[in-house]
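From: lab user (bench 3)
To: helpdesk
Subject: output format question, protein + 2-oxoglutaric acid

Hello, I'm new to running complex predictions and I'm not sure whether the block I got back is the full result or only part of it. Here's what I submitted:
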Amino acid sequence: MDLFSTKKTHLKLPDAELTYIADFLPKKKAENLFESLKKNTNWQQDTISIFGKTYNQPRLTALFNNTGKTYSYSNITMYPEAFSKELLELKQTIEKISNSKFNSILLNLYRNGQDSNGWHADNEKELGTNPTIASLSLGADRVFHFKHRQIKSERHKITLANGSLLIMSGAMQHNWLHQIPKTKKIIKERINLTFRQIY
Ligand SMILES: O=C(O)CCC(=O)C(=O)O
Ligand SMILES: [Fe+2]
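Helpdesk reply: Thanks, we reran it on our side. This is the complete output you should expect:
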């Protein structure tokens, strides 16, 4: 267990619980996991429609679960792959540290600074009320922005480092939005894994 750090930083926020573990995975382990996921995943390029026009989503995605069920949001359907032994073990460790159960992992591959994830909340009804979502970051640093839906002064950002774990819980998905904006900086790729319980 000492391969995983559990030093938690709790961020004090209204209507949300947010916990950050900066060095959850040792850097080398994070790099190896990045390489194996990059290579062994069936990355999906989805399209999004905006005012009737179709665009490529600015990142690649993948879904792992043990239910075999597809997952749909914003007109996108994700087709699952089965957990590898590596992902299953990681899921079990993250379940312990976040005191939650997860049956699905959603992956995002941000190929460069032009890939992004726009303002949204993970509030699909399949996630239930006040879902706990644990988010593991591998590869390049990216900035995570989050803002309260009503309290305009509550707008923050935090850099998600290689090997870090961010745990979103409480009423965060109902009261806050989050995004990974584009950046003009020349940066390497990043893989993000969000652990979710999908009902
Ligand atoms: O890449 C990230 O850190 C955020 C991913 C995210 O918000 C999502 O997949 O819903
Ligand atoms: Fe999200």
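A quick orientation on your result: The first helix runs from residue 27 to 40. Let us know if anything else is unclear.
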